[in-house]
Write a structure and sequence with these properties.
- It contains 15 helices and 22 strands.
- It is of the alpha/beta class and 546 residues long.
- It folds into two domains: 369 residues, Glycosidases (TIM Barrel, Alpha-Beta Barrel); 75 residues, Immunoglobulin-like, CATH 2.60.40.1180.
- It has an eight-stranded parallel beta barrel with strand order 1-2-5-8-9-12-13-14, surrounded by four helices.
- Strand 16 and strand 17 form a beta hairpin.
- Helix 3 packs parallel to helix 5, helix 9 runs parallel beside helix 10 and helix 13 runs parallel beside helix 14.
- The two termini are 25 Å apart.
Length: 546
Amino acid sequence: MKYLSLVCIVSLFVFGCKSNTSEAETAAVKEQPFVWEAANVYFMLTDRFNNGNTANDVVLDRTNEPAKLRGFMGGDMAGITQKIKEGYFDKLGVNAIWFSPVLEQIHDSTDEGTGNTYAFHGYWTKDWTNFDPNFGTAADFKELMDTAHEHGIRILMDVVMNHTGPVTEKDPVWDNNWVRTEPGCSYQNYDTAVSCTLVKNLPDVLTNREEASELPSPLVAKWKAEGRYEQEIKELDEFFQRTGLVRSPKNYIIKWLTDYVREYGVDGYRVDTVKHVEEGAWDALNKEAKVAFAAWKKANPEAVLDTNDFFMLGELYGYGISQKRLYDFGDKKVDYYANGFDNLINFQFKSDAKKDYEDIFFKYDSILQNDLKGKSIMNYISSHDDGEPFDQDRTKTYESATKLLLTPGISQIYYGDETQRSLRIEGTNGDATLRSFMNWSAINDPETKALLTHWQKLGTFRKAHPAVGAGTHKMISKNPYVFARNYDDDAVVVGLDLAKGSKEIPVSNQFADGTTITDHYSGKTAKVENGKVIIDSEFSIVLLQE
């Protein structure tokens, strides 16, 4: 934040640097520390969010005609940076961004039954040591990181260790001391979910191999052709000498992934395909990432945002908060929270979101404040590969925002949740329907603008108050529905489904009599009298703060 004007520093924590602020945005709020367990995360597919540099739209002869929404469309790291600079995320209350992988992908396209497909999604890695030119350069990545940090936004780098990209004419399979190409996963037990290939033609990295392995010959040939073989070998020698680790496939990839933390200050990882890799590998990745993060902080003291440690979020497919700490493979239960992870994506929220507010909030509070104390879960209503989102037809967009952003845990906004980007695209196959380009052209339509404002008000409230996501929950009143959240010295009171116009809100002992309270949603203020406040607004929601 050191690069911002004084006015921005005062207002950015809650609202961003917008000059024409509403009443709610001008309310003075005591700055609270950033807490990962309460973060408001924005997730986008890099290729589908914003095109900041049209010069990299067509590269590496990726010119085969793709099936609908299965080719590169121009989004890049420069496009994300552009939107950070514009204040889009500040106004949405976002304090962490997760974008799909930007490392070098396979060069060719594939057709595995869903139509001709390129690696626009970023999960088909060809080279962990290089950025993909369709997404940008090392300089683009650095600018994205630096710009995000200047805005107080943390970056979660999406990482893959389970597999390489598919095999094509341009992308040969790696050596058999690095990958397996069979058997396919059958999910009968632990071994048939881990020691197998996730899908056809997706070589599985031998992360369980403990013996030293020579580098894969296709990668060696690539580095030599690019004139950087000697430099890569030098860096590998230094890493293995420093760590004493065996030169196994897992440890090579750990070296490559933690380089981005050590050099650029990546704040955390979103880890792909968690249950398909031995849990010990994730623990090893976490340990080296923490070492790298500490090294970056020491080398860049002026850029350090806070004292938080490196953060790891896992995509453990099928995990839900009700499972608490143990994931059951049938023949084995694994505690991934004890193997490097601070947080797991909660695939259950889309189902829980169908329940009443108090049912959701009470349940999540009960688990997070007990079994998962010190850890957390990430809730979402839609994503890039969940074919059954909470609101696929976008008919419950306001409800989606309210439930997602007010539920205990981390909230994950999937790009376009806040703008009603369609999740049903005709002519698509499979998850492509979830991956259309961001609907920027609709951003100023009255309906979209009103919805976006709702997301912004809830998001900036969540950002300002770690109590919302990480605090203890207590229902104050069932009718009208009013609840409180508390985290250290941060206290808020929220009322939902209230009468429009004048409404009396019980605030229990959250705020002392005589205290002036602001409704973040409307910008109205009121004084607490006899444990209550009266807010006269046109809205059915109040977000009360001191």
